[in-house]
């Protein structure tokens, strides 16, 4: 270890072994089983015209929207209703 590194470690309150143990702990946490390669299952509302899942709605007028990605014209989303129960009705 050089004098510059020792001075910076002393100023920060850490040592080289502290840095190594912290990086090892970070590596162990990032390799844990918390994350999976499986994509999350997301329930999207279906287009009332063609049945394709609607990923977005684009407003084209005060009472009209275009569903994406299918492009069908649909009613705009109701701001008083959450997306989670839009399939229920």
Automatic annotation (TrEMBL):
Residues 1-89 are annotated as: Disordered. It comes from the Archaea. Residues 20-34 have a biased composition (Polar residues). Residues 1-16 have a biased composition (Low complexity). This is Small CPxCG-related zinc finger protein. It comes from Natrialba asiatica (strain ATCC 700177 / DSM 12278 / JCM 9576 / FERM P-10747 / NBRC 102637 / 172P1).
């Amino acid at each position: 270890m050089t004098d510059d590194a020792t001075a910076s470690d002393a100023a920060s309150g850490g040592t080289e072994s502290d840095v190594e143990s912290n990086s090892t702990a970070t590596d162990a946490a990032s390799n844990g089983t918390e994350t999976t390669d499986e994509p999350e299952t997301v329930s999207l509302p279906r287009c009332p015209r063609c049945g394709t899942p609607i990923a977005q709605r684009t407003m084209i007028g005060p009472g009209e929207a275009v569903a994406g990605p299918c492009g069908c014209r649909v009613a705009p989303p109701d701001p008083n209703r959450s997306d989670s129960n839009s399939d229920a009705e």
